[in-house]
């Protein structure tokens, strides 16, 4: 009887220990990487106060499918020249597309320096908004 109790106790202890050490649930997925948005510029001419001047039209290309809600653009001159808020209307943009960041037939005065962009975006089918910063350096 003692031998039977020892063997039964040993099997119970081993069973409990093996159950504690294993898990059938997969580890949680890693958080999604923060997407990036590349900025491209087309050089053109625009009318600024009656003068035709070189200007830039900006285009955005995300690294993954995203809904672009809005963008705040800080001009290369700096915030004193003005920040531009552009409502992008939640356009769904895929990586192979480029979305214009200004109304048709408008452009931003071309100045050497760094333009800063702060996009408010969501991922498709997700209500969580977040921001994605980007820059464009003009020579």
What's the count of strands? 8
Identify the overall geometry.
elongated
Radius of gyration: 28 Å
Sheet with the most strands? 4 strands, antiparallel
Helix content: 10-25%
- Please mark out the parts with pLDDT under 50 across 5 or more consecutive residues, or reply none: 4-19
SSE pattern:
HEEEEEEEE
- What is the averaged pLDDT score? 82
Distance between the ends: 91 Å
Number of helical segments with 4 or more residues: 1
Q: Could you say which structural class the secondary elements and strand pairing correspond to?
A: mainly beta
Strand percentage lies at over 45%
In short:
The chain is built from one helix and eight strands, in the order αββββββββ. By secondary structure, it is mainly β. Strands 1, 2, 5 and 6 form a four-stranded antiparallel β-sheet that branches.
Task: Please tag this protein with its features.
mainly beta, four-stranded antiparallel sheet, 1 helix, 8 strands, 14% helix, elongated
What layout of secondary structure does this protein have?
Blueprint: H1 2-21, E1 37-48, E2 51-62, E3 66-74, E4 83-93, E5 99-100, E6 108-109, E7 113-122, E8 130-138
Describe the model.
- With 139 residues, the chain is mainly beta.
- It is built from one helix and eight strands; from the N terminus they run αββββββββ.
- A hairpin with an 8-residue loop joins strand 3 and strand 4.
- It is elongated and about 70 Å long.
- About 12% of the residues have low confidence.
